Amino acid sequence: MASSKDLAVFVRDALSAGKNRAEIASVLTQAGWSTHEITDALDGWADVPFAPPVPRPQTVVTARDFFIYALMFGALLFGAGYLVGLLHALIDHLLDASARTADHRIRWAVAVLIVTLPLYLWLATRERARLAADPALQRSAIRNWMTYVTLLFAAAVLLGDLVAVIYAFLNGDFTLQFALKALVVAGIAGGIFGYYRAGDGRGAAV
Amino acid sequence: MNKLLFVAVIAVVSGAVVSGLAVVGGPGQARAEKRDDQRFADLHRIADAIICDAGDGRAFSRACRSAADATDPQTGAAYEVTQGEDAFQVCARFELAQAESPMRDALHFDRARGCLRYQLAQPSKQWVIEGH
């Protein structure tokens, strides 16, 4: 059995030998490679009349990217979650000041935010500067994945918030307190969604 | 990350953090809360011990536990106990305003001095806590 590395080498050699792409695809199909694998292998080389074949840049997966973007994602997730918790506790305190039980929640949320906010902002500005200096880094596969995972989470939270509002309304629990809390969730999740969406559109998501 | 958004995010989060701290107070406040909780628990322990002794342990299914070691967590002073024939009270000096502490509804306050009061309910000969 040959690995996909052998496939890449074969395609390069075949292109160097002046075979055309349809011919190469046809023999590879006969050899049992899937259409998907063949397309990937051929797309690794630019379709220009030049010898030797010109390699195309590929999306890259690096451990460094994983470290930075997973850290940013975690900081964002925890920061946003506890910001929601903190604002909810403050709304409770404003509208119904009897509960002292929220004190621990507030202290914990404050501690989380003091760590995550500076961390996220620092990493985000640092990555932005790095991307601006070298646009080739935008091909990071992990960066794209993290952007879409963040969008997925934000969208899920927004939809969940909408469901909660409708349920509360039908259940007769739609109070001012609830409305404000739902608004906080929608504002934060919507903000993150909009930010990542716009960033992705510009090809400069951070 | 554009400047305006950057500033807005910092403003919102710092605003939330600062108002959070304004609501719960700093570490000094938290320590005072913990000492007050300790005082409240001590008063209950002392009252339990008194009831236990007075009724020869009848009112309790478990053994009487001594509350002799219960002293004020800050000053180390003994709590104030006033005992009569069919009523008693145990008192402590609390540090924080009592208005926002629902768990201490049972206490009778005279400024900082909060007391747990019990009386002997006549027909049943049981000690009951005196409400407001």
From TrEMBL, chain A:
Transmembrane regions listed in the UniProt entry: 66-91, 106-124, 145-170, 176-196
Ranges where the DUF5671 domain occurs: 65-195
Alphabetic keyword roster: Membrane, Transmembrane, Transmembrane helix
Name assigned to this protein: DUF5671 domain-containing protein
Signal peptide: none
Record keyword Electron transport present: no
InterPro entries attached to this UniProt entry: DUF5671
Protein species of origin: Sulfitobacter dubius
